[in-house]
Design brief:
9 helices; about 260 residues; alpha/beta; TIM Barrel
Length: about 260
């Protein structure tokens, strides 16, 4: 029976080259075998897959991901909406069709003046994606969607909330989260559990704060899915896949308990 509050493992959390700091080109150092079995044993409900873990994978690794007991639920895409050409977005759509995942995470560009252009490209992208796949806008710092009003303008122009939805970050300032809900309402369907701005503590170290933030989301009517996006150890001497997976598993236990 599916969990009422599904929690996914973000594979970007475990990837040493997630920001291109190791080789400069963001080619992954991890293979699916480095995290699939750990995710299964820990009891994650699915995977939010960093795109290069498939785009750069061998045929054997692709087969492992697509045939895993832990389903690929969200495709974490960095296909640009600044680019007029649809090539990268169509390539992602092909992977989404192959994997059967239910959502695509994306980021808009940084220019609020291009809001209508972003909306147009989102609509075009949706037309080559399976009908039930949701497009999840990450309201990320440095993008136009960081401004709740601009995010609302883009998504309203793109289409209905069931298709064009949004992500909030659990570690964002509560007042800002309130602003996002005021602007986006039921479009907010997913949470990234990310406390990088607070130094990436283990959730058990800030459990009371985590519970308070979860309660605030519930008051806004949120009842969607969750991804453990970043964990304790990222950017430190403990930024090693095995240590990060262990941290993610500990966070999973805390989040599972807090969600009830």
């Amino acid at each position: 029976m599916p969990n009422e509050h599904p929690i996914y493992l973000g594979t970007v959390a475990l990837e040493p080259n997630r920001w291109g700091l190791v080789s400069g080109d963001r080619r992954p150092l991890l293979r699916p075998s480095d995290w699939l079995e750990g995710a299964r044993v820990a009891g994650f409900d699915g995977i939010e897959l960093w795109e290069n873990h498939l785009l750069c994978a061998t045929p054997e690794d692709v087969a492992a991901v697509l045939g895993s007991e832990v389903p690929l639920r969200i495709f974490n895409s960095y296909a640009s909406l600044e680019d007029e050409a649809d090539t990268a977005r169509e390539a992602i759509a092909s992977w989404v069709r192959r994997s059967g995942c239910e959502a695509v995470k994306y980021n808009v560009g940084g220019d609020a003046a291009n809001a209508e252009r972003y909306a147009d490209r989102l609509r075009s992208w949706s037309e080559v994606l399976p009908e039930k796949v949701r497009l999840l806008c990450e309201c990320h710092a440095g993008t136009a969607a960081e401004d709740p009003a601009v995010a609302a303008r883009i998504l309203e122009a793109a289409g209905p909330p069931e298709r064009f939805a949004a992500i909030v970050h659990l570690g964002d300032e509560p007042d800002y989260v309130d602003e996002l809900f005021a602007a986006l309402g039921t479009r907010i369907r997913h949470v990234h559990v990310n406390f990088l701005r607070q130094g990436a503590p283990q959730l058990e170290e800030i459990e009371a704060d985590v519970r308070e933030r979860i309660a605030a989301l519930a008051r806004h009517g949120f009842s969607g899915s969750w991804t453990i996006e970043f964990v304790s150890g990222v950017g430190t001497e403990r930024d090693r896949p095995a240590d990060l997976l262990a941290a993610a598993v500990r966070d999973l236990a805390v989040l599972r308990e807090a969600l009830g």
